[in-house]
Amino acid sequence: MLKWQLHWVAGWDPAHGEYRATIADNYGHADVMRGWIDGDRLTFETIGDPPACLRLTWDISDPASMTWRNEMSVGGGPWSLVEEYHCQPTENHAPAP
Prior knowledge:
By secondary structure, this protein is an all-beta fold.
């Protein structure tokens, strides 16, 4: 069974006035993304004009259930949903036994 893993590092880039993130996964994919905050949403998109672009969005407009979306655009076409998850806080943050 394959297990996907991602390393994500994000921070503010004062030279560009936006957030930047570097990503690398265990399948050899690496990229740099740009990000911004709009109200209760934090969004990151692929930089440049590659054949396929990603858009990742964290939405905390409902504090009881944060939403994370992964969208893709191919060849500059419309964004389509790849996956979406609703994340809810837990009372105990300790790992399960």
